[in-house]
Amino acid sequence: MQNDNNNNPKILFIGMPDMATVCLNKLISLNFNIKGLIPPDKNNPSRQGLIEIAKNRNIPIFEYTTSPNEPDFIEKIKQENFDLGVICSYNHKFSKDFLNSAKDGFINCHPSLLPDYRGANPYFHIINNGEKLSGITLHSADENFDTGEIIAQETFSLMEKETMGMLFSRTNFMVAELLAQVLIKYKLNGEIPSRPQDQGDFIKAPNIKGDFYINWNDSILKIERLIRASNPFYNALTNFRGGYIRLIAGNYKKEKHNKTPGIIVKVKKDSIQIAAEGGYYFPNVIQAGSWGIYSISEFIEKFNPHENEILK
Questions:
Q1: Residue 208 has pLDDT above 90, yes or no
Q2: Terminus-to-terminus CA distance in the chain, angstroms?
Q3: pLDDT tens, position by position, 136-195
Q4: Nearest to residue 11, comparing CAs of 93, 140, 106, 92?
């Protein structure tokens, strides 16, 4: 990528909250020349926040009918003579014609160390697979998801109790910082160096549809990861007295035993011990019903779980 107008390149911003909100605010705070915003689809409930930011900063808003790849919409974008486009989380695949609508192409921001975890939801899969390291990647956008040339990457260690929400939040801010660094260099030097991305059979990160049901015959480590990977955007469910409850957070202990998987081994005033393969799970936060989110002591007080009851 190379820009001849390196004094104040004209940027088109595309995104969906929360990554887009964090990144857009960062770029605005550093006085980048954001001259256009493509918000989420009109049926996306998250779109209004981005639109309000754009309106408050007099950033023009460009909206398509059903797809950003519509010829009339692409022609409209081309007429604006953008130097560069930035994509911060979006649920459309862009055509070659669209990606050529900005002079120096588009940068896509992705919350994993590509080429691993290409796809819509790296956060869940990274935690659920027990990764110790992860990272963020900025790459040139091409016609496929997350396969373009690598511009910049940053690696970090996952925390022992990392949840999907924690990973989601901190990668958003890390992406914003790295994106700002890349754009500062682009503004000064008029170019964005990149290198080819490795191609092959790497770990995928497909979108998540529906809830998860805990199998207490699974290893305690697998169960504990699933609960953290689901928190807070998905439901890790188990059957309790004929209805499902959601386990949101907790602790675990590895220990060999011969207890029935899913059985409540012990109940104290402020703890429940549940048997799984190779150990025990101790939930700290449980949701019962649509709105009832309880600390473990509150759950025990309200529902009076008994030893030897079985969760399925």
A1: yes
A2: 55
A3: 999 999 999 999 999 999 999 999 999 999 999 999 999 999 999 999 999 999 999 999
A4: 106
CA distance readout (Å), 211 to 143, 234, 246: 31, 6, 10
Q: Of the candidates 278, 193, 157, 145, which has an alpha carbon nearest to the alpha carbon of residue 3?
A: 193
Q: Which two tokens stand for residue 7?
A: 């004094």
pTM of model > 0.90: yes
Residue type, 14: I
Whether the per-residue pLDDT at 6 is higher than 70: the answer is: no
